[in-house]
UniProtKB/TrEMBL annotation:
This is Sodium/hydrogen exchanger. Keywords: Antiport, Cell membrane, Endosome, Ion transport, Membrane, Signal, Sodium, Sodium transport, Transmembrane, Transmembrane helix, Transport. The chain crosses the membrane at residues 64-83, 95-112, 204-226, 246-264, 317-341, 361-385, 406-427, 433-452, 473-492, 498-519. It comes from Poecilia formosa. Residues 76-528 form the Cation/H+ exchanger transmembrane domain. InterPro entries: Cation/H_exchanger_CPA1, Cation/H_exchanger_TM, NaH_exchanger, NHE-6/7/9. The keyword Nucleotide-binding does not apply. NCBIfam families: b_cpa1 (TIGR00840). Belongs to the monovalent cation:proton antiporter 1 (CPA1) transporter (TC 2.A.36) family. Residues 650-662 have a biased composition (Polar residues). GO terms for cellular component: plasma membrane; recycling endosome membrane.
Length: 691
């Protein structure tokens, strides 16, 4: 029993020791887990701190980049003031912006050391297919997403590409299209000088549409020959198709004579020449972007997608017409909607809200057209023209001033920002391909293309014009074919292939040369070609009429008079507070609808017959009004509505024929006033001279 007791005590002690060991093991395991958790937490905290530091550094870098561009614009503005104060005209503000951009680009390229993210050799992998735009990596159970930035030159993998400043000052091309281009294009349409523009509307459309197409195909075919030459001498090994040459011809055909036009405006050069250059540049920007889109959409059937195919060609033509017409309709429709909103609401009582709505509706036109597959440039251009023609009549006086000044400032800043970025991109853009043969060939091609655009079309237009496009005008238009913001924006939008990169580099050099050389030589060229300066546009219109230099009857007396009559009788009264009441122009059975659409202010406006757009008609016909059932002409004659040429409109030869016509018109108005008042309408005709 004694031994059994000892054995039991030994077993108890062993069990107790086992329990103590088990407890110790559990405690050690718990401590190890705790330490492991602390290490994991420390690693997560370190990772979060690194991420926050990188985010803070990125934010600081972005602020420095924006500050750089703001400093460039500030320096440009101060230099512009100095140049204007000293009356220096050999260099325009856009040229200055490019020079300052070049200087900053040199500093960023060569003055700031590279800061690489990695110092080791990058890992290698082989893929059967090209990389997608997004890459997902699984690292120890954690997934990381990377975005494709593009191909990097191996020689610069630790140098230029990895420099934070150079990488971040290269903007996304969509920034130019969605942010910077809309105010530039809208301002061109909103500030359009309609009198001279519509006097030369037929010629402007001819230069913009037919001339741009001619220039595109001439440049494209010449550059295709240059490409063949480069292949023959071994200077080109990458793919460069005929459609690429046509695409280059389309984007480089977009003229932007901003320097020339600024000097013309400052010197008050001939109004018709200004209108021809301005109208062509505004319209052919729209044509060039739609033409380039049509060329990109050219997809022949079959194995070789770069050979000529008739069905694909006509499909591209249909795409061109569809995109242009759809963009035009969308831009005009947005302007009409804005006009109706400002007419049938009392937003004019709140100028701030009115200006904000006008701004947002105008800008949204561009984005809406792009979202619908159309071209925002065309849409916002015609939106600006529509807003100026209709909506501006409904705005309060304060909002009218605000909108004009707002878009003028935005246009100025956006344009100079783009030109500054051009200078910067010459050194910071990492995909330049400088080909001397291609660059020299491009300069020769655009010169020939411009010549075949201006001179033959001017000859054809002069066959039907009374006011001939004189030889010195043609030479000036040839000289003023500068390239600018639109060509640059179209070229930088796609730089994926070596062909597009070569186009971008060449376009950049062409813009530099034309802005500096041709823009700087504008004033001497005006003097050398004996083009009038110091011309008052209003007196110029009078003088042209006295000399018999009027628009052709096809442009003024027929086409535009039909449009003006319809616009003044129906569109203006529907969309604005101006114009005659619809109760006087619509048939009697439309009375309720006319009363609903006519603004009460139309009855209160004592100068409702005075429409600024009457200045646009210059022909040999008499001034004719149709009001109610009565037509009144400026020579004192009156006819019934059945004998009238239609609608409430006028056509004038620019000046009153004399006091006899005025007295006859006064007598006619006096005799008709009571009859018109009995219909609920007051007729008041201003007798002061207007051109």
């Amino acid at each position: 029993s004694t031994r059994l007791g000892e054995t039991m005590d030994a077993l108890g002690n062993a069990a107790s020791a086992a329990r103590r060991a088990r407890t110790m093991l559990l405690l050690v395991w718990t401590l190890l887990n705790a330490v492991s958790g602390l290490k994991a937490d420390d690693g997560g905290m370190v990772e979060e701190l690194v991420t926050e530091k990188e985010a803070e550094e990125s934010h600081r870098q972005d602020s420095v980049n924006l500050l750089t561009f703001i400093s460039l614009l500030t320096l440009t503005i101060l230099t512009i003031w100095l140049f204007k104060h000293r009356r220096v005209r050999f260099l325009h503000e856009t040229g200055l912006a490019m020079i300052y951009g070049l200087l900053v680009g040199v500093i960023l390229r060569y003055g700031i050391p590279a800061t690489s993210y990695h110092n080791k050799t990058p890992p290698s992998c082989s893929l059967k297919e090209g990389p997608s735009s997004t890459l997902l990596l699984n690292i120890s159970g954690k997934f990381f997403e990377y975005t494709l930035k593009g191909e990097i030159n191996f020689r610069e993998i630790h140098n230029v590409e990895q420099n934070d400043m150079l990488r971040k000052v290269t903007f996304d091309p969509e920034v130019f299209f969605n942010i910077l281009l809309p105010p530039i294009i809208f301002h061109a349409g909103y500030s359009l000088k309609k009198r001279h523009f519509f006097r030369n509307l037929g010629s402007i459309i001819t230069y913009a549409f037919l001339g741009t197409a001619v220039s595109c195909f001439v440049i494209g075919n010449l550059m295709y020959g240059v490409v063949k030459l480069m292949r023959a001498v071994g200077q080109l090994t990458e793919k460069f198709y005929y459609t690429d040459c046509l695409f280059f011809g389309a984007i480089i055909s977009a003229t932007d004579p901003v320097t020339v036009l600024a000097i013309f405006n400052e010197l008050h050069a001939d109004g018709d020449l200004y209108a021809l250059l301005f109208g062509e540049s505004v319209m052919n920007d729209a044509v060039a972007i739609v033409l380039s889109s049509s060329i990109v959409a050219y997809q022949p059937a079959g194995a070789n997608t770069h050979m000529f195919d008739a069905s694909a060609f006509f499909k591209s033509v249909g795409i061109f017409l569809g995109i242009f017409s759809g963009s035009f309709v969308m831009g005009a429709a947005t302007g009409v909607v804005t006009a109706l909103v400002t007419k049938f609401t009392k937003l004019h009582c709140f100028p701030l809200l009115e200006t904000a709505l006008f701004f947002l509706m105008s800008w949204s036109t561009f984005l809406l057209a792009e979202a619908c597959g159309f071209t925002g440039v065309v849409a916002v251009l015609f939106c600006g023209i529509t807003q100026a023609h209709y909506t501006s009549n409904n705005l309060s006086e304060e909002s009218t001033k605000r909108t004009k000044q707002l878009f003028e400032v935005l246009h100025f800043l956006a344009e100079n920002f783009i030109f500054s970025y051009m200078g910067l991109a010459l050194f910071t853009f990492q995909k330049h391909i400088f080909s001397p043969i291609f660059i020299i060939g491009a300069f020769v091609a655009i010169f020939i293309g411009r010549a075949l655009n201006i001179y033959p079309l001017s000859f054809l237009l002069n066959l039907g014009r009374r006011d001939k496009i004189r030889g010195n005008f043609q030479h000036m238009m040839m000289f003023a074919g500068l390239r600018g913001a639109m060509a640059f924006a179209l070229a930088i939008r796609d730089t994926a292939t070596s062909a597009r990169q070569m186009m971008f580099t060449t376009t950049l050099l062409i813009v530099f040369f034309t802005v500096w050389v041709f823009g700087g030589g504008t004033t001497p060229m005006l003097s050398w070609l004996h083009i009038r300066v110091g011309v008052d546009p209003d007196q110029d219109l009078d003088g042209n009429q006295d000399e018999g230099q009027s628009k052709t009857k096809q442009e003024s007396a027929w086409l535009f008079r039909l449009w003006y009559t319809f616009d003044h009788n129906y569109l203006k009264p529907i969309l604005t507070h101006s114009g005659p009441p619809l109760t006087s122009t619509l048939p009697s059975y439309c009375g309720p609808l006319a009363s609903c659409l006519t603004s009460p202010r139309a009855y209160e406006n004592h100068e409702q017959l005075r429409d600024p757009d009457t200045d646009l008609i210059h022909n040999d016909a008499d001034l004719t009004f149709t009001f109610g059932d009565t037509a009144i002409t400026a020579n004192g004659a009156s006819t019934s509505r059945a004998d009238a040429t239609g609608g409430l409109g006028w056509s004038t030869n620019g000046k009153r024929s004399g006091s006899t016509s005025e007295e006859a018109l006064e007598r006619e108005l006096d005799s008709r006033e009571q009859e018109l008042l009995s219909r609920g309408t007051r007729l008041v005709f201003p007798m002061e001279d207007h051109i």
